[in-house]
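Prompt: For my understanding, could you write out one protein's sequence and backbone structure tokens?
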Amino acid sequence: MLMAANATAQNGAPRAAKPLPAEKAEIIHWWTSNSESAAAKLIAENYRKAGGIWVDTAIAGADQARAVAINRIVGSNPPTAAQFNTTKQFLDLVEQGMLNNVDDVAKSEAWEKILPEPVLNVIRINGHYYAVPVNIHMQTWFWYSKAAFKKAGIAKEPASMDEMFAAMDKLKAAGIIPLAHGGQAWQETIVFQAMLTNVGGKDLYLSVIRDRDQKAINSEAFKKVLLAFKRMQSYIDPGSPGRNWNDATALLISGKAGVQIMGDWVKGEFAAAKQVAGKDFGCIAGLTPNSPYLIQGDAFVFPRTNSPATVQAQKLLARVLLNPATQLEFNKLKGSIPIRSDVDTSSMDICAQTGMAIMKDKSRHLGISEIFLTPDQNGALQDILTAYWNTRIPVEKVQKSIASAFKD
């Protein structure tokens, strides 16, 4: 009996199976700016330390990177993992059975206890987890150059939309670009959402974006939002059309521009330029104490495969992405805040601290428009907004166009 037991042990039956040899894991992502590349490199290094082999496929531009990933998945030549946003962008892939879930990782690491509900509602589809979120970005921060404000004689941080407009008028009078903006449809949508949340408020935001309520879209309150959005266009410079977001941020860093409305990924550019939050630049999450905090972020999905080694590589990446140490250092570089609620963020900057404090107030949590709208609806909204931004279209016509685009 002893000999038999020893033989069984030697054959490995009662022992845990040996891990499969590490397989090259190709990761498609769009992190190509200086700060984004540094953040991606950190994840790659941590993945290698955990035993994986990272193969980097960086493609400039989120739309382009997603298109490449989708084409390769559909064409049966998928990467190991691909970056998407925490929105409905990958829903079609799930419905077509083209993604692996990571349910066992989610269960073993108790995602339901450490991840915010708006994010869980996106990555959890029909009870299964199809994406690993890595951060929380908030789209509609107001960033401002301390040097530009000082030069324009702005002593007090704006605390309302009227005060923000007054500050931008002073910047314009001082010969400083009031609004550093990249004239691209997605950036104009961010400016619109900033006006909708700070001028319209949470209830109107939900009525228009989530409920697509025709009465709300054609209301005077929403008209006021659209007029504020259009007013913002009067503060940009002639070089705005086609400008990338990080190039707009560079205008703030140099003091050539005063304000930028953009997600907190811009902090990575400030950090790369050795600028310090609260000293060189300021950050305003909302212009009222109850301004909605629009939650979005980056996530990775895992194309379907039956290869045990590839599945193992996917699960290893899922664990590395949500590792507390990775979360802290990655988000410092990326400018976002950790997706995990249990990470000690006391070493992060004051803007991140502000964001973490707001995240404790669930009443301020809201998803970005892409969480509530289908890709077609979101695309239609972007087209309408960018046309309104760049041409002289009556605001009433814009309201009717949005109402028509949102009809079920």
About this structure: The CA atoms of residues 260 and 391 lie 21 Å apart. Residues 1-17 have pLDDT under 50 and may be disordered. The first strand starts at residue 24 and ends at 29.
